[in-house]
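Bit of a strange request maybe. I'm writing a small parser for C-alpha cell strings and I need a real example to test against, not something I typed by hand. Could someone generate the C-alpha cells for this chain?
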Amino acid sequence: MSSGDQTTTATAGGSTSTGDQTTTVHVSDLPTLAGKDLGTSRWVEITQDHIDKFADLTGDRQWIHIDTERAKSSPYGTTLAHGFFTLSLSTVLLYELLEVEGTTSILNYGLNRVRFPSTNPAGSRVRMKVSVPTVEEVRGGYQITFALTFEREGQDKPVCVAELLFRYYGPE
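Reply from user aminoacidic:
Good idea to test on real output. This should exercise your parser:
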C-alpha cells in the first residue's frame, strides 16, 4: 500500500503525516513556493463520533448531522459531516505538508471562496490537496494563499474547495 492510501483517524491533538512528503522551507524562502503544488495529505476517516463532538462544540446539532436513525430515511441514507468540520481539518493537514522554519509567528489570516460542492457522509474518508497560487510580501513577513481541495474517496466531486490565507512572520 502506498503512503497516499493509508488512513489515519482525525484526532483533536493531531497526528503524524502519512500523506505526501513534507516540504520544509525557511521563512525567507517562502516566495519560492508561489505556483507550486504542495501535494496531498493522508486520508482522514470521518466518524460519527467526530461529527457529534463537532456538533457539541459548535452548537450546530441539526438532525442531518447527529440523528443516525432519522438520517437513514434522508436522501443521503446516513448522517453528514458539517462543512465547517471538513474545513477545520485544513490546519492540521497543512502542517503535515508544509513546515516553515525560522518563523516568529504564524497567523491564520482568513479564508476566500469557500464552497462545499458535495456532501461528506459519516464513515467516508477525505484528503486535502494543496497548492500555492500566490505569496505576497507583508510587513515583517509573507502572506500565502493556499488553494485547498478536499476529496472524498470514491467520488470525483470535491466536498470542500477554499482559499486559506496564512501569514508567516520571521526574524527582522
